[in-house]
Amino acid sequence: MSDKLSMHPQFRSKEVFFLDCRHCESNVCRRAMESVLVADSQTKLFSTDCPEKSSVELTGERFETDSCNCQLENVACVFCGSVLGYNVRLPCKTCLQSCNNGHLWMFYTEKISPYQRFNRKGEEVLLWGNIPEMSHDHALDFLIDECLR
After folding, report:
1. What tens digit of pLDDT does each residue of 66-103 get?
2. Could you tell me which of 43, 129, 116, 126 has the C-alpha nearest to residue 86?
3. Which of 48, 92, 108, 126 lies 20 to 30 Å from 29, alpha-carbon distance?
4. Given pLDDT bands bounded at 50, 70 and 90, which one contains residue 15?
5. How does residue 1 score in pLDDT terms, banded at 50, 70 and 90?
6. Closest Cα to residue 94, out of 35, 36, 39?
7. Burial, 18: exposed, middle or buried (Cβ in 10 Å; 0-12, 13-18, 19+)?
């Protein structure tokens, strides 16, 4: 969900994370949040509206879960091939009608290493309500600045 105004208020205060593949340490996402599965609130995940397109790819392996009728497809790291999570290819009616953050890319907590993302000044943890729109999100510039410090 790229429109922050239409996002449910409970998600605006969630912290933003960078996600790295736990196996090869490649960055796979610059704008993720901690989430729970809509169909099973005991299952914790990280979700995003936009993974790093050059770092992850769909595997072609589609499946459904026992808890809902969403159509899912595995997502793997392009560098090491590790399956990191899944993309919701077709959300089911139940999940669409539930309170959700609009993210369709999910990462398994045991497959990634999360790191809090800080604001541009590096002073505060970035919250989802303050994250730039995808087209204006210059997180890579921030990472380069951090490396040069």
Report:
1. 888 999 999 999 999 999 999 999 999 988 888 888 89
2. 43
3. 92
4. very high
5. very low
6. 39
7. buried
Q: Give the integer Cα–Cα distance in Å for 80 and 59.
A: 13
User: Distance between CA 147 and CA 59 in Å, rounded?
Assistant: 33
> CA 30, CA 140: separation in Å to the nearest integer?
8
Give, in order, the Cα–Cα distances in Å from 46 to each of 50, 61, 145. 12, 20, 25
Q: How far apart are CA 87 and CA 104, in angstroms?
A: 6
Question: CA-based Rg of the chain, rounded to a whole angstrom?
Answer: 15
- Angstrom distance (rounded) from CA 130 to CA 30: 14
Following DSSP, what letter does each residue of 80-110 receive, concatenated? T--EEEEEEEE--HHHHHS------EEEEGG
Contact 75, 84 (CB under 8 A): yes
